[in-house]
Amino acid sequence: MVFDIDMIKGVYAALPGKVEATRKMLGRPLTLAEKILYAHLFAPTATPYERGKSYVEFAPDRVAMQDATAQMALLQFMTCGRDKVAVPSTVHCDHLIQAENGAAKDLAAANNTNKEVYDFLSSISDKYGIGFWKPGAGIIHQVVLENYAFPGGMMIGTDSHTPNAGGLGMIAIGVGGADAVDVMAGLPWELKMPKLIGVKLTGKMSGWTSAKDIILKVAGILTVKGGTGCIVEYFGEGADSFSATGKATICNMGAEIGATCSLFGYDEKMGDYLKLTSRADVAAAADAVKEHLRPDAEVYADPAKYYDQVIEINLDELEPYVNGPFTPDLAWPISKFAQAVKENNWPEKLEVALIGSCTNSSYEDISRSASLAQQAIDKGLGMKSEYTITPGSELVRYTIERDGLLNTFAQVGGVVLANACGPCIGQWARHIDDPNRKNSIITSFNRNFAKRNDGLASTHAFVASPEIVTALAIAGSLTFNPLTDTLKNKNGEDVKLDEPKGFELPVKGFAVEDAGYQAPAADGSNVQVIVSPESQRLQLLAPFAAWEGTDLKGLKLLIKAKGKCTTDHISMAGPWLKFRGHLDNISNNMLIGAVNAFNDKTDTVKNELTGEYGAVPATMRAYKAAGLGAVVVGDENYGEGSSREHAAMEPRHLGVRAILVKSFARIHETNLKKQGMLALTFANKEDYDKVQEDDNIDILGLTSFVPGSQLTVVLNHKDGSKDEFAVNHTYNEQQIQWFKAGGALNVIRAEFAKKA
């Protein structure tokens, strides 16, 4: 089945003319990202946009939402006055299934536990013309790649790993739910014109090396914030040499370097994947405009002229990487990893190895891993570590079962989990004897922040390709290098693992009995969406209050966060996922993972009303009850990680007025703006050190709040002294209107009310 083929053909019909007009306007050859971006402007422009500075309004082709973020996005959408979404949109139930006892039992438990939420998402999708993918259908990004992604398209998704679709040449960007509401309502979607990082790939991978190793190396080069505000575009003969799903792996994990998205040019590998996933019509349409789905030849010839930064990687020389622990940009080539483990005193014993997830669950990934599992059987080795497999979709799962790969994993004791996110997002009821014991796990996932997978601060999590993860599971040790080392088998013989072998695509093609898709009602006007007032899982939204028209004075310091503060720290996942549709309940996890700079503790801050220390959410609720606002102060790259807008909505709901940090991650800064919050950065980063625990804080200059102007922060210290300094912001005129109205949704409601 080909979804939205008329829309796709419409994009391709207009593409040549739009590309030629852009080329003339810019007066030079174009990168692929520029072709797609300018072809998706909400309104034509006669003047070029400046990378990294100009705010631009786009018209994405589609929207995708996963169940944890779709709840809040659709609760917002249902208040804006439309009777149907303006662009093709889908909901994917992948986040709420907890991994504990294997696929069948876990899926049954999820359907029971989350029935209220699934019924809500199913009915609201039915009502507003949204495609619904049931629990067990698969992880949003894999399902999108198999069904919806197309070269040259533009998509936004309410999940930070939406860029996965770049593996099929699509600009796909992770956003908060309020951004999705804009697009579903038919309004323009705003983004600062990204800068461009070009990654030239030469040579060809072989042996143990895989596409995952490319992005693990790039993460080491650029760090977790090196791609912020940028599109990373991969090109060169090396880029054309490996599979579309390998490309998707790289684009998926580009989120870990802060990239807006990542992108590959259309090639034969993408065409092959489209055809084998029943989209020959899309491949044929793309072939007809292929020259416009790749960078211009001059860009290939002299990339430094067209990209803001160029990185070159020779795939002939690339070796496998293992990244971590605790951050995805701590990159170790496999030849140096064992030494790093010993020098840093990381636990050498590998307790659990997990393959799959949205990042690495393709047929190619699974078949290469299965070839190693078969070697473990044939060579008398077995598995020394606990080993789990997470298929990315029912299409992949059914196909690998048909081809005997699941049976191979079963023979070595592998546990197949549901087609869902599971341990990758903390939905893992891990079995461990002592949760405080230092231990090591390794995954083929994307993130490895502390507590990310199992909620345990003692767990050292590492990230590698599925092949390396499987090899280390066979050895049971992080110090094993499968490229050079041998293992003793059950007969006492020294044996060496052969290079993994697999198939880019299944020889017999893909197969599935029930992919898990539910089409929306042809007419949703009579569909009832019911939310019980007594529900603990779902809560209808009330509009946030508009700005009062004055400077903000007498704000309390809620917390001064120290070091890494991701959206996981601000709004944890795991057991809290069940409250993603209930703003008040989930607000009880607000900032409970952030480290208080004044005592190095989590979830322990001083209540300035009582002088006592307590939980962050409870302290903020006390301030709110007293009619007081507050400020959160943070460090660098505040809000990195998942796109979850709950990390912005919770502080807004509880009365935090401003977030003041050294720097922001892109999605989180936008989410704060959308919710009517002040997202501010220190003009002088050393001013962070001036913030004291008992400060009362004033924010001045709001009555003349305009783009490009600084605001002033006054710290009124307990001893009567004060510090005053300038702070920066990146608000444009429209975003200032969001602030004044109390949030972007209030502006949308007002606009639709005028049209009614």
Essential attributes:
756 residues; alpha/beta; Aconitase, domain 3; Aconitase, domain 4; seven-stranded mixed beta barrel; six-stranded mixed sheet; 24 helices; 30 strands; globular
- Overall pLDDT score: 95
| Global morphology | globular
Give unreliable regions as ranges: none
Q: Do you know the CATH topology of the largest domain?
A: Aconitase, domain 3
Number of domains: 3
Compute the number of helices. Answer: 24
CATH class of the largest domain: Alpha Beta
- The percent range for helix content is 25-40%
Query: Radius of gyration from the CA trace?
Result: 25 Å
- The order of strands across the largest sheet is 22-25-26-27-30-29-28
Classify the beta-strand content into a percent band.
15-25%
Question: Which structural class do the helices and strands define?
Answer: alpha/beta
CATH homology superfamily of the largest domain: Aconitase, domain 3
Biggest sheet statistics: 7 strands, mixed, barrel
| N-to-C CA distance | 37 Å
Name of the CATH architecture of the largest domain: 2-Layer Sandwich
Number of strands: 30
